[in-house]
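sorry for the late reply, my laptop died twice this morning and i had to redo everyting from scratch. anyway the thing you sent over, i finally got around to it. pasting the sequence first so we're on the same page, its 372 residues, then the predicted structure underneath. double check i copied it right bc i was rushing
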Amino acid sequence: DRFVTDSANGASALMTGYKTINGAIGVNDQVRARDCTSVTAARVPTLSELARAKGLAIGVVTTAPITDATPAATYAHTPFRGWQSDIDMPAQAVSQGCIDIARQLVEGEATPEVVLGAGLAYLKPEADGGRRKDGRDLVEAWRRRSGASTVVSDLAGLTASTTPRLMGLFSKAALPADADRAPDSTMPRLPDMTAAAIRALSQNVEGYLLVVEGAQIDTYHHANDPRRALAAVAEFSQAVDAARRLTDPADTLIIVTADHSHSLVLTAGADRKAPLLGLAGADGAPNKALDDAPYPTLIYGTGPSPTRPQAIARAEGSSDADALRSVAVPLSSAGHAGEDVPVYADGPQAYLVRGVIEPTYVFQLIRRALSL
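ok and here's the structure:
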């Protein structure tokens, strides 16, 4: 229904093989936005549900709330991505039979054996500092499901865990930016969570499906914050390294891609010695636009921005990498961009990743690799 996808639609295409409307998860394009009566007919199986039917273990890892759009596409079916907890749902949606995303995580057909990330508040009742008004403690509900399990709250607990079922939600909302992390932080990073997930899931002799999201790449591009966004890319790269180190390409397919892009642009004319997070130019002299004002090496098409004179005043002659940048279309949050994103693969069936492909093809590739 849009030229450019959101995370819900983009991730659903990867996880179900169907494109849908923006904002919907785990359903095809026959669903109607926020209309629970349309979900049953539009519901389509996820890779997780197909994997569960074959006996595989399932894991979800993210730096966002575990109920956010991309991780939710692993296990949920909903006409609106914003219904993360019961407090988010209108009375009509409840009366029509919709269940909030956090409950689907714990009560759905493909409840993951490994759940690592953030968003603890969506699973805990108000009495325990959470957001849930129904009194449910979904962490305890997950713990009570069959099999030995561990619920951890910090890096030490994560590293020490040896059970095949593992949950760790390390923040009420999202995890802090990796660029701002203190060296002595007790909160795990994405590579730590990825490694722990693989150790737990590998105990299932039938195999596993693991989805890992570096969510803060998107978070900070929405804020036109390239410093934190690029640090999140580096953190995600380290998570990929961890996955490759702990698996064997002879029997493990690793796919790296994105559910959409952003409008970050590397401008022309910047000298190789120019600061990536500073002003474009050569030999120490900034490049000038037609209005005779300097411009940064990295710019965004849309998003939060002061007026151009204010942006230049903040950036020119300053090493402040967090200075807001002027954009073509000022918005409260940067919009996604619509160009193709890369897909990288290693392992069984990786040779099928070539040329220009649809996101729904990635679903079929994983399904083929796992014989689902």
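The longest helix spans residues 226-246.
thats about all i looked at so far, will dig more tmrw
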